[in-house]
Amino acid sequence: MKWLNRLEGTRRYASGLEWRIWRKLPIITLVGTLLPALLWLVCDWTLDPQSSAEHARWLLTAGYVALGAVIFHWTMVLTVGIGCAIVMVMKGPGYVADAYPLSHRDHPSGINRKGP
Question: What is the number of alpha carbons within 13 Å of residue 92 lying toward its C-beta?
């Protein structure tokens, strides 16, 4: 069973910004994941958690902030990717779903249009 059945006589529109963004998403994901991780590693290398409780607490907080930043970034990349996919499908040829009979075809929303 095919999910998308092409409508005859429709045309594709020119691709735009969505394809450029779509192609850059893997590198954007990689950079957005590595930057917070590297910053946290730099903090881990420079601060000694054994020296004071304040350094240990600050290092733990920095780890949580880095993890939150990575998860937020992944969520944004996924959202932009879904948006790009929707625009790609919308700019492509027209598609039609399987037809089914409507029960309210003659009288939409149960309103009688013949008048009093």
Answer: 14
pLDDT digits (tens, 9 = 90+) for 27-43: 999 999 999 999 999 98
Kindly report the backbone phi and psi dihedral angles of residue 66, in degrees, each rounded to the nearest multiple of 5, phi listed first: -65, -45
The residue among 7, 18, 29, 25 whose CA lies nearest residue 74 is 29
The amino acid sitting at 52 is S
pLDDT score of 106 more than 70: no
- Residue found under tokens 């929303």: 109
Q: What is the reported pTM?
A: 0.70
Residues 6+ apart with CB under 8 A from 44: 59, 63
**Distance of alpha carbon 16 from alpha carbon 111, whole angstroms:** 44
Residue with tokens 């240990």: 56
